[in-house]
Design a protein that fits this description.
It holds the Pfam family Terminase_4. This protein has 66 residues and is an all-alpha fold. Helix content is 47%, strand content 0%. Helix 2 (33-49) packs across helix 3 (57-65).
Amino acid sequence: MIRGPKPRARAGDLADMPVAPDALPRCPGHLTDVARKEWRRLATPLHVMGVLSTTDRAALAAYCQA
């Protein structure tokens, strides 16, 4: 079987992709004191590294609460 070339992204395809907001997520109010401390320890460094956005807020909150 002969295969064709790999599909490549076109310039217009990249413009249509959603972009996560570039804001530091706020600490949820329902976290315990220990979980808030963990949030403060992790949120800023992860955001500065570019691996944390507002869309990750619930996952980080669950981790901190656990």
